[in-house]
């Protein structure tokens, strides 16, 4: 947990409830969100501790012994105290991440009933931009052109094989906040959108986005897809993948069911259903795609290419064959980064504190049985 007897507990102001914020940004970067929270709720005081994260390793500034026990609310991305007994007053834990699979085996997840909420919704704009950027980089042969620029070579022919996006189809596997913003941008570009969700969405009410929505983004009413597919079986998934998809966006949470959801059979099906070739963008978790099968699909031209912001494992080892697979673009799990990230996540926390105080349903509360 950090800290120890030599690190005395920092007192809270008299009559104030504690929000313990253990976040991967320096306090200066979180200050606007902290000020917003303390202004909105004059009964709260925020104490910030910096959790450093780099290449899979986490270190946390010393948190005084006993301080978590005083926290009414915890805001975190990676860090948690060792168990629920350490946080007897905590009413809510707000994760500043889209998922909570990284703590699914933690005692606070498995052995407590403390509400856990994700920051699902804050990532939509920047990740949608990443998806569209990668798709355009590939369809406009930009990497080839950039290599030519570095060589100071003028080769017009190398840039003429363009496949523009008008009339193409994007299939969004997991129609959450990220998928909905991808849909919004794709529709503006003239693309057709189809969506896939685990549960059926047959009524207008069921298609609405009930999570946090960055104002002016997404598909709040679920009206953008021309068709909606659903199910949790292979047959249901395959019916979706048969729809001649040009861009397949992987946005489902990682669960037992979704592990290796896309493998050899799925790549073969995509190949058969779309003679132009499917481009795959994975912004969810690396384990959702069978990576060995993906490499084979790339090497045999079963798919047109892949843009991966997540891999299995992370960091991806230097000798992993995925690095050199044809038509693959890899980024080190950075698509969710934004200068507005922390501010948006504090907005989600504020919404949930408001709702917790009034007894309303929380935003983005994790269903522990379902895993998201």
TrEMBL record:
Decide whether keyword Ribonucleoprotein is in the record.
Answer: no
Q: Name one Pfam family in it.
A: 2-Hacid_dh_C
Q: Where is the D-isomer specific 2-hydroxyacid dehydrogenase NAD-binding domain?
A: 136-206, 235-335
Q: Which GO terms describe its molecular function?
A: NAD binding; oxidoreductase activity
Q: Which InterPro entries match?
A: D-isomer_DH_CS1 (IPR029752), D-isomer_DH_NAD-bd (IPR006140), NAD(P)-bd_dom_sf (IPR036291)
Q: Keywords of this protein's UniProt record, alphabetized? A: NAD, Oxidoreductase
Q: Which Gene3D superfamilies does its entry note?
A: NAD(P)-binding Rossmann-like Domain
Family annotation (SUPFAM superfamilies): NAD(P)-binding Rossmann-fold domains
What name has this protein been given in UniProt?
D-isomer specific 2-hydroxyacid dehydrogenase NAD-binding domain-containing protein
- Identify the species of origin: Curvularia kusanoi
């Amino acid at each position: 947990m950090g800290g120890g007897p030599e690190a005395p507990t920092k007192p809270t102001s008299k009559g104030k409830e504690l929000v313990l914020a253990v976040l991967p940004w320096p306090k200066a970067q979180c200050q606007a969100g902290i000020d917003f929270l303390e202004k909105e709720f004059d009964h709260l005081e925020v104490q910030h501790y910096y959790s450093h994260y780099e290449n899979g390793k986490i270190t946390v500034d010393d948190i005084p012994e006993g301080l978590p026990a005083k926290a009414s609310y915890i805001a975190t991305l990676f860090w948690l105290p060792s168990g629920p007994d350490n946080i007897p007053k905590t009413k809510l834990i707000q994760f500043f991440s889209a998922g909570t699979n990284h703590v699914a085996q933690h005692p606070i997840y498995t052995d407590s009933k403390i509400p856990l909420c994700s920051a699902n919704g804050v990532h939509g704009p920047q990740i949608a931009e990443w998806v569209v950027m990668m798709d355009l980089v590939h369809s406009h042969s930009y990497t080839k052109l950039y290599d030519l620029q570095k060589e100071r070579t003028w080769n017009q022919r190398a840039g003429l094989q363009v496949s523009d996006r008008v009339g193409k189809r994007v299939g969004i596997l997991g129609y959450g906040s990220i998928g909905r913003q991808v849909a919004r941008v794709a529709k503006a570009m003239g693309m057709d959108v189809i969506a896939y969700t685990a549960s059926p969405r047959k009524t207008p009410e069921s298609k609405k986005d009930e999570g946090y929505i960055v104002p002016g983004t997404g598909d709040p009413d679920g009206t953008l897809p021309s068709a909606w597919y659903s199910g949790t079986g292979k047959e249901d998934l395959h019916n979706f993948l048969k729809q001649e998809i040009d861009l397949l966006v992987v946005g489902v949470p990682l669960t037992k069911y979704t592990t290796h959801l896309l493998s050899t059979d799925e790549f073969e099906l995509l190949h058969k259903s779309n003679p132009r070739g499917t481009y795959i963008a994975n912004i969810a978790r690396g384990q959702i795609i069978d990576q060995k099968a993906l490499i084979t699909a790339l090497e045999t031209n079963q798919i047109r290419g892949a843009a991966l912001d997540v891999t299995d494992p992370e960091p991806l080892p230097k000798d992993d064959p995925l690095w050199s697979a044809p038509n693959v673009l890899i980024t080190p799990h950075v698509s969710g980064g934004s200068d507005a990230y922390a501010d948006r996540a504090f907005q989600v926390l504020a919404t949930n504190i408001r709702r917790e105080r009034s007894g309303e349903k929380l935003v983005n509360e994790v269903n522990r049985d379902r895993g998201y």
